Amino acid sequence: MTNVIVSGAADASIIVWDMDTAERLHVLKGHTRGILDLAVDPSTYDHNGVTADGPQKVVLFSAGSDREIRRWNISLEKAEQLEPENPLLVHETSVYALRFDDDGDLWTASADGTVKCLSRFQNFQPESTFQHGDYVRAVAVDETGGYVVTAGRSEDVKVWNRGSGDLIHAFDGHYEEVSGLVMLRHRCVSVGIDGTIRLWDLNPKVLGTAMAKDVKEYGMLEAGDGSNNLRDGDKSKPGGLTEEEERELDELMQE
Question: What pairing do the DSSP bridges indicate for beta strands 157-161 and 147-152?
Answer without folding.
Answer: antiparallel
